[in-house]
Specification:
Elements lengths: L1 E2 L7 E4 L2 E4 L6 E3 L21 E5 L5 E6 L2 E6 L4 E6 L5 E4 L5 E6 L2 E6 L4 E5 L5 E6 L6 E5 L6 E6 L2 E6 L14 E2 L15 E3 L5 E7 L3 E7 L4 E3 L9 E6 L6 E5 L5 E7 L6 E8 L12 E2 L5 E7 L6 E6 L2 E2 L5 E10 L10 E8 L6 E6 L8 E7 L6 E4 L2 E4 L2 E4 L2 E5 L14 E5 L4 E6 L10 E8 L15 H8 L3 E5 L9 H5 L5 H19 L3 E11 L1 H12 L6 E5 L10 H8 L6 H6 L9 E4 L7 E3 L4 H9 L2
Length: 631
């Protein structure tokens, strides 16, 4: 993805290190925080792990959920206390984490986080996506989430309908108009919200979803202005942020090959272009961007693809802030720089440096000195760990840091990992594909094993990660008699933009070639892999790929289990399908080539029904295992 303002973004590699074009060295410093020995899990199966963490802007309080209960950590004393018993469906806090709004199955409550009191708040209907304003005076919320959703505000003036068009107002299109909901395509770009408070709490920026999404600035006195951009040319509203300065949005063409980063004048709704994003394949915005920096610059996530570089980077008004070796995954926020000016904080960035299997936290200087960009390693992340920033406090997983001092650890049970898998991580073929082999416990070299290639969720999802929590299910498959192989083919994030986007308009061809080449390359290092007995397994798009592997490359892949596979790309969300295959109207033949057709007795479809394939709606582990081993 090209960024239209990167004239200062040239890099060259010299003497084994990164340098700018004028030979300024890039500085890396050693890790500040110790790597945690035991990974922690935070998902629906282990709700005792702290999740949904919020840090107040003054750094005094950390709010989080644990076991579906709302908890608060006082940073100064390091003590925790429970604010509200469960079940808490969701919550949101004001800017300084003094007030929180809690939702329980549509009921809304206000929690005073200083006093520890909780009180019910009447609403116009079951409440969703409730958020206090930055000062904690008023609460905005959405009702009728699945119908003609409306946006309400409740506060000293009572409960008021701020925006809504109930009933079948959108009659000419046979649908309803919704206010304050993200919209059907938003999740594919990582946007899970449909409205935002202004920093001073006097306005709300809201999405109106009808035939297409539009944006509107709503005053609390019921005045409003429309946000103006060419919605016909740029229909996708990919990103929205309003936290200091005016609102910033990212809009994309339907082809996703071109986008604009726009700032919005909150008085008039007029927009100004801050950067253009372009890529011949597709634009991939970086979560956490765009955002205003304290000195007025706009931080933009982009890709550096010239002068021999292939990097996913961060720019601030044309200046490149990150080195090409750092694959940026997300910007979590900013922290004050020790001894630096208030207007030049450090960015807290999630990314990978050198090894795509390892996800780490980095501090990145936003002010460039004569020594070039400065990047400091902070911590290694486990699979479930999230990074949250507020004031001068950083929360990494369950660890709470202020500066270089760990001030608290959020109470959490020990890691609930039934297995301690130890996969052999490799880089194979001339493309240096990340790959891994997991043997059964107690495996003795010289024993030939049938191979199970796991495809997971398919394109866009990493499988080869250095985190034991991610290998629990694969450990079970290995102990059932397989050598489990995972290969991150082209199309997978974490390596480089060109690696990720090489699948454009040739998805099945590229991925299956990489899987086959990677498997044979692994056999050279792991001769106990029995390539005469190779099975493949995946879910969703990974299930589609598993079935395609047996149909197109039967000489390599002999049996497949496809759980809830995609059988027709028309069933895939439009932004995802067109990102890989292009517009169906222009690429009908390509779409047809990627549809599952032509049955095979060697494919077991689970949760799908397609003529010619063996279909078992509720197959369990034992049935799948028996099917895969029966050849």
């Amino acid at each position: 993805m090209g960024v239209h303002q990167q004239q200062a973004a040239g890099w060259k590699v010299s003497h084994g290190g990164y340098c700018t074009r004028d030979q300024r060295r890039t500085r890396f410093t050693s890790p500040r925080f110790a790597r945690r020995e035991s990974p922690l899990i935070g998902d629906a199966g282990n709700v005792e792990y702290p999740y949904a963490v919020t840090v107040g802007a003054d750094g005094a309080r950390v709010v989080f959920l644990r076991s579906a209960e709302l908890w608060l950590l006082d940073v100064a004393s390091g003590t925790e206390r429970r604010v509200a018993e469960g079940p808490v469906s969701s919550y949101a806090a004001d800017r300084d984490a003094r007030t929180a709004v809690i939702l329980r199955d549509g009921e809304m409550f206000r929690a005073d986080l200083i006093e520890g009191t909780v009180a019910a708040v009447p609403t116009a209907g079951p409440a969703h996506d409730a958020r206090p304003d930055p000062q904690g005076l008023r609460i905005g919320y959405v009702t009728d989430l699945t119908g003609a959703a409306s946006l309400h505000v409740t506060g000293p003036e009572g409960d008021r309908l701020l925006a809504g068009e109930p009933g079948n107002a959108w009659r000419e299109h046979g649908g309803t108009i919704a206010w304050g909901v993200p919209g059907p395509a938003s999740a594919e770009f990582g946007r899970d919200r449909g409205w935002w408070w202004s920093p001073d709490g006097t306005q709300i920026l809201a999405v109106r979803s009808a035939r297409a999404a539009s944006l509107h600035l709503l005053d609390l006195d019921f005045g409003w202005v429309d946000v103006h951009w060419d919605r016909e040319t740029y229909p996708y509203l990919a990103q929205v942020r309003w936290s200091g300065g005016g609102p910033l949005i990212t809009v994309l063409r339907r082809t996703q090959q071109h986008g604009l980063i726009l700032s919005i004048d909150p008085r008039t709704g007029e927009t100004q272009v801050h950067a253009e994003l372009a890529d011949a394949r597709w634009v991939e915005p970086i979560p956490g961007t765009p955002r205003h920096l304290p000195d007025g610059r706009v931080l933009v996530g982009g890709e550096l693809a010239h002068d021999g570089f292939d990097a996913r980077c961060l720019f601030a008004d044309g200046s490149l802030l990150t080195p090409p070796g750092l694959y940026v995954r997300r910007v979590a926020g900013t922290l004050p720089h020790d001894g630096g000016a208030a207007g030049a904080p450090d960015l807290i960035v999630e990314g990978s440096l050198g090894d795509p299997a390892v996800r780490e936290v980095f501090r990145v200087r936003t002010s460039l000195g004569s020594g070039g960009p400065e990047v400091s390693r902070v911590a290694v992340l486990g699979g479930a760990d999230r990074v949250t920033v507020g004031g001068d406090v950083l929360v990494v997983g369950a660890q709470v840091w202020r500066g270089e001092q760990r001030v608290a650890t959020l109470r959490t049970p020990g890691p609930h990992l039934p297995y301690r898998p130890d996969p052999a991580l490799e880089r194979v073929t001339d493309r240096r594909l990340p790959a891994a082999v997991l043997y059964p416990a107690g495996f003795v070299a010289g024993t030939r094993l049938p191979v199970l290639v796991t495809l997971g969720e398919g394109p866009g999802h990493q499988q080869v990660v250095a985190d034991r929590a991610a290998w629990q299910e694969r450990r079970r498959w290995a102990d059932s008699g397989f050598a489990v192989v995972s290969i991150d083919s082209r199309g997978t994030p974490g390596v480089a933009p060109s690696f990720e986007k090489a699948v454009h308009r040739r998805l099945a061809e590229v991925i299956l070639a990489d899987q086959a080449d990677g498997l044979h390359a692994l056999h050279g290092k792991h001769p106990d892999l029995d390539l005469s007995r190779v099975s493949v397994r995946g879910h969703g798009l990974g299930g589609w790929l598993a079935a395609m592997a047996v149909l197109r490359r039967p000489e390599v892949f002999h049996r497949a289990v496809a759980r809830e596979p995609v059988t027709d790309w028309a069933d895939v969300p439009v932004p995802v399908a067109e990102r890989y295959l292009g517009d169906r109207a222009d690429s009908a033949e390509l779409w047809a080539q990627h549809a599952l057709r032509g049955g095979s007795p060697d494919v077991l479809l689970v949760g799908a029904d397609l003529p010619g394939f063996r279909s078992v709606p509720d197959a369990g582990f034992d049935e799948e295992r028996a099917f895969l081993l029966d050849h």
